[in-house]
């Protein structure tokens, strides 16, 4: 992915904005009928994408049904955006709106452009793994979202009641029964597969279980992975990240463990951003 820290827009949308009338980009939009995932065309892109991006970040996916990567990324974004109001995804079919795709400088399908305040702030080309996509969107929401107007409060549904099964998971954790806690989280995820908080809780339990149930391994790589887990649990994630980053180029398991631990912190955490930047530099 490019522009992971959302420092500037690599794609110039000025021509498209001018053609459709930039003067209306700051109009207030109501929240009625808000949908987190929509399809847009040349006629609706200004109102649905540029104007909405004055309120919340908008992820614009330019793809084609002819591309399996486009369809995969579209399905991932539909799942990731469901049931939330922090960002919106707008899908544009490049086959039916080639002029828009051309105006946005699209070279590869799929291409994703994140917009805020009517301007591009980040972009990437091609498909992405689900965990990296979730991190990317999380960083967009946490870093850019607070700078925007936000959606009006009217029509916001009440927060759902907390799942009573969480009490069972807490009891299991207090008793040191990590397997039971994991089983409870699996039950919840079976009903709500997109629940990011439960996914994070389950991953945290996996780390705790490894630390509690394993002595120091004899194999050097396993030992380094184990020490990274212990450093992370001991509230020293930077030490854990440093240890794993030294290994990622030669040892795939170190990269997997690093990505797992990174997912347990907020995407906008400076330590996460620094580690992900170093990871990209190390690998590429």
From TrEMBL:
GO BP terms, alphabetized: response to stress
A Pfam entry, by short name: TPR_20
Designated name of the protein: Tetratricopeptide repeat protein
Species: Corynebacterium wankanglinii
């Amino acid at each position: 992915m490019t522009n992971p820290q959302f420092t500037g827009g690599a794609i110039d949308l000025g021509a498209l904005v001018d053609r459709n009338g930039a003067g209306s980009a700051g109009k207030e939009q109501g929240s009625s009928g808000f949908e987190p995932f929509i399809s847009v065309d040349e006629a609706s892109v200004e109102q649905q994408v540029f104007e909405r991006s004055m309120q919340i970040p908008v992820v614009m996916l330019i793809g084609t049904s002819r591309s399996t990567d486009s369809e995969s990324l579209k399905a991932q974004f539909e799942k990731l955006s469901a049931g939330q109001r922090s960002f919106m995804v707008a899908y544009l079919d490049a086959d039916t709106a080639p002029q828009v795709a051309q105006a946005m400088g699209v070279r590869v399908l799929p291409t994703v452009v994140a917009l805020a305040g009517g301007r591009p702030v980040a972009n990437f080309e091609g498909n992405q793994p689900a965990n990296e996509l979730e991190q990317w969107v999380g960083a967009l929401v946490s870093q850019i979202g607070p700078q925007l107007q936000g959606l009006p409060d009217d029509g916001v549904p009440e927060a759902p009641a907390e799942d009573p099964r969480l009490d069972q998971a807490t009891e299991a954790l207090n008793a040191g029964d990590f397997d039971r806690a994991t089983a409870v989280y699996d039950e919840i995820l079976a009903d709500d597969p997109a629940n990011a908080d439960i996914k994070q809780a389950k991953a945290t339990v996996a780390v705790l279980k490894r630390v509690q149930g394993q002595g120091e391994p004899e194999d050097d790589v396993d030992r380094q992975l184990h020490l990274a887990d212990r450093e992370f649990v001991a509230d020293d994630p930077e030490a854990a990240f440093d240890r794993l980053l030294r290994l990622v180029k030669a040892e795939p398991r170190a990269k997997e463990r690093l990505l797992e631990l990174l997912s347990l912190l907020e995407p906008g955490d400076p330590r996460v951003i620094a580690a992900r930047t170093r990871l990209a530099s190390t690998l590429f």
